[in-house]
Amino acid sequence: MGTPHNRAEIGDIAEKILLPGDPLRAKFIAENFLENAVCYNDVRGMFGYTGTYKGEKVSVQGTGMGMPSMHIYANELMEVYKVKKFIRVGTCGSLREDVYLKDVVIAMGSTTDSNMNKDRFGSISFAPTASFSLLKRAYEIAMEKKVPAIVSNIFTSDKFYDDNAQQKNSLLASYGIAAVDMETCELYTLAAKHHVEALTMLTVSDHLLTGEKCTAQERQTSFNDMIKVALEI
Fold first, then answer.
1. 206 annotated among ligand-binding-site residues
2. Last residue of a domain, which of 58, 83, 108?
3. 44 a known binding residue?
4. What pLDDT, in 10s, does the model give residues 25-47?
5. Residues 9 and 117 in one domain
6. pLDDT of 46-92, one tens digit each?
7. Which of 103, 158, 206, 225 is catalytic?
8. What is the pTM of this model?
């Protein structure tokens, strides 16, 4: 069967899935955290794998960058493959002084400058949020494992390079927004539409106020810690 973007057959993909943006991160997770992982998709180099974690069937699928790319993969996973639980695992830039490099940001909700929901809802400002049960469990596990984590609203940006970034980021931080990514708002919106559960967890790899950046080793170590929390959920 498959879709234009995924060659998996029905049943190849588990009801629980991790969604890194980078397909090579999907490959890394499958090879280092899952047992008996099998690649079910390589269309356009967007790798997807299914394996087991502690005996439970789990999939991991790259989604690419930005809300339009998330829209394609999440829609197909929800509508065609009937996935029920989604955990986006990625990196982010911190917008606040009290959100540090290597922290894990658990996204309670997502603000955006994208027009995708304006196109859907017109004058209504829809506010997409995480699954409370997934969010609560993620925070509890992070605390148990002593992984530094905060729960916050985040900003899903349509642009990586934004001429007005400094002004926007300062305003958003003043309203408590912790970090910026490029996919979460669409994932949460689609989860609401399809009545499934979704959560975003992000490791802080860059600090947009101070200019600090994680080293490659720090980025990988903190990302691995987050993956362990995500899989335990």
1. yes
2. 83
3. yes
4. 999 999 999 999 999 999 999 99
5. no
6. 999 999 999 999 999 999 999 999 999 999 999 999 999 999 999 99
7. 206
8. 0.96
Residues of the chain with pLDDT under 50: none
* Structural contact between residues 105 and 92, judged by C-beta atoms closer than 8 angstroms: yes
> Do residues 122 and 191 both lie within one domain?
yes
Number of domains in the chain: 2
Residues 7 and 103 reside in one and the same domain: no
Q: Which residue has the tokens 């789990």?
A: 58
Task: Based on the residue annotation, tell me whether 206 is a catalytic residue of this protein.
Answer: yes
- The CATH number given to whatever domain includes residue 204 is 3.40.50.1580
